[in-house]
Design a protein that fits this description.
Helices cover 4% and strands 31% of the residues. The protein has a single domain, classed as Metal Binding Protein, Guanine Nucleotide Exchange Factor, Chain A, CATH 2.170.150. Strands 9-4-3-10 form a 4-stranded mixed beta sheet. The chain is built from 1 helix and 12 strands. Strand 6 (79-83) and strand 7 (90-94) form a beta hairpin. The chain is mainly β and 172 residues long. Bound molecules: zinc ion. Zinc ion (ZN) binds next to loops.
């Protein structure tokens, strides 16, 4: 016989999508806002040409997550898509400010990739992986020591490497 003080068995609580912690991403002008469930699945740098050109950058850093954990919060009418005819991959961007907002690969329809830079908070994953590393550009900044540039406040620069005297002078 059950005593009155016996606690009723608690129903198992599962975190629903509404209860899960979410992190927000937004484009430069703020027209497009999206969020994903925290943490993201993974994060990586893509040095491949399509991502470089789509971002106008040396490489693009993405955060990947399941599509079902992704939500377009605001700005659906501002989102424009470009489908790459070669790969069938789709890149969405803000039609107002041009910020790339997500990237979908045709071969991975359950996944969606969002530029890391759009998040102002942590995403739960560090970008420790590299795709297309063989295409890494030789003009990329990789943490060389920098010095202030005289006469240009706010500008720092990488000093040219000192030539050793024993090195032959290159002929041009
Ligand atoms: Zn925008």
């Amino acid at each position: 016989m059950k005593r009155k003080s016996d606690p009723a068995p608690k129903p198992k609580r599962q975190a629903t999508d509404e209860q899960a912690e979410r992190v927000e991403a937004r484009c430069l002008c703020g027209s497009v806002v999206l969020d994903i469930q925290y943490p993201a699945f993974w994060a990586w740098h893509d040095h491949g040409r399509p991502s470089r050109l789509a971002h106008g950058a040396a490489y693009a850093t993405y955060v990947g997550t399941w599509r079902k954990r992704f939500r377009l919060v605001k700005g659906a009418r501002k989102v424009t898509r470009f489908e790459d005819p070669e790969t069938g991959n789709t890149r969405a961007f803000c039609a107002r400010c041009g910020t790339p907002v997500w990237y979908e690969r045709k071969q991975s329809p359950k996944w969606i990739n969002i530029p890391r830079a759009l998040f102002s908070s942590r995403t739960g994953r560090e970008p420790r992986y590299h795709l297309n590393i063989a295409e890494q550009q030789d003009w990329i900044y990789t943490g060389m020591p920098l010095s202030p540039l005289k006469g240009y406040p706010g500008v720092v620069w990488e000093r040219p490497k000192r030539k050793k005297r024993s090195e032959p002078t290159p002929m041009f």
